[in-house]
Amino acid sequence: MEVGLQGSETTTPGRKFQSAVTGSARKVKDNAADWHNLILKWDRMNDEGSTMANKIVNLGFNKSSQKEMQVMMADQDTSASSNSENAFENSRELEEECDKLLSVVDKMTRIVSKMEKLVSSEKGIIDLETFQYGTGGRQTPLFQTWPTSQFADVSSKLYEAYKQELTLKQAILQELAHTTNPDLSMVYLSCWLYQPYTDDRAKLLLEGLLLETGHRPI
């Protein structure tokens, strides 16, 4: 499986190297490519969701301001009617953006589900090698230096990071439209955008995986 790399350049493993990879090595290499592609999809969803979350916050502030104006202008029928129409339109837009953000989180949930399957795949490879080579496992590395168990360990760590991030996203989705505190809203937006659970450690794990399997040049 070829994998497009981030940045201005796209690099794929050489054909000679690709054709020589079979069995467990082929599966591990394909899994590494899947990790890369799933995380790219996640990052795109995160960017889309961040834009929607900002709209939700702004619409929520507008809704709160319009409610205050309705109270102040309740004795002015014309202005009150106009404000009611604006409030209705604002509520409709807010609901639409919330539905869009829900759709993004649903897609992220499916991505994490696929990540979980990759972890199961790596553990299955370890079980197979234990059956083939005994409890000590394979004596020579599949690629460069990593024992087979390290691929499963990296996959598990990546999965746990994105699983935690998904839980945070789900919590933000539930709270964002109902928050009237501007400072708290900014915290939610910052957490969504900067993803505290998928920090530099997760990026290093992915880069190490791609380097070891030949998807990145050394």
Automatic annotation (TrEMBL):
<protein>
    <submittedName>
        <fullName>Cyclin-dependent kinase 2-interacting protein isoform X1</fullName>
    </submittedName>
</protein>
<dbReference type="InterPro" id="IPR023250">
    <property type="entry name" value="Cyclin-dep_Kinase_2_interact"/>
</dbReference>
<dbReference type="GO" id="GO:0016301">
    <property type="term" value="F:kinase activity"/>
</dbReference>
<keyword id="KW-0808">Transferase</keyword>
<feature type="region of interest" description="Disordered">
    <location>
        <begin position="1"/>
        <end position="23"/>
    </location>
</feature>
<keyword id="KW-0418">Kinase</keyword>
